[in-house]
Amino acid sequence: MRMNEALVGDAATRLRRAHGQLAGVIAMMEAGEDCAKVLTQLAAVSKAIDRAGFKLVASGLKYCQAAQERGEEAPMSVAELEKLFLALA
């Protein structure tokens, strides 16, 4: 399934935000910040990336379901989407 703006949407925004957060985490590490603070921020980055991935899978499910409802062949099967979802979990 090709990525398009309708599928990417919020996920790209989340990843841009995570990109900035990750730069902040690196800066914290290089500045010798407290380990607990660094790990807290790193966990937030990780969660943001996970949520972006789940958003992509959810968008893919909606896209495929809409295609089926229009009588078209879905670009991905439910099994393929499930495999992608499980890869993120």
Detailed description of the structure:
By secondary structure, the chain is an all-alpha fold. Helix content is 81%, strand content 0%. The protein contains three helices and no strands. The two termini are 20 Å apart. The model has no long low-confidence stretch (mean pLDDT 88).
Features:
elongated; 89 residues; single chain; mainly alpha
Strand content: under 5%
How many separate helices? Answer: 3
Helix/sheet category: mainly alpha
Shape field = elongated
Reported for the largest beta sheet, the result is: none
The CA-CA distance between the termini, in Å, is: 20 Å
- Low-pLDDT stretches are none
Number of strands: 0
Mean pLDDT: 88
Which bin fits the share of residues in helices? over 70%
* Radius of gyration, in angstroms, nearest whole number: 17 Å
Order of helices and strands: HHH
Break the fold down into its secondary structure elements and pairings.
Layout: H1 5-30, H2 35-69, H3 78-88
Brief account:
With 89 residues, the protein is an all-alpha fold. Helix content is 81%, strand content 0%.
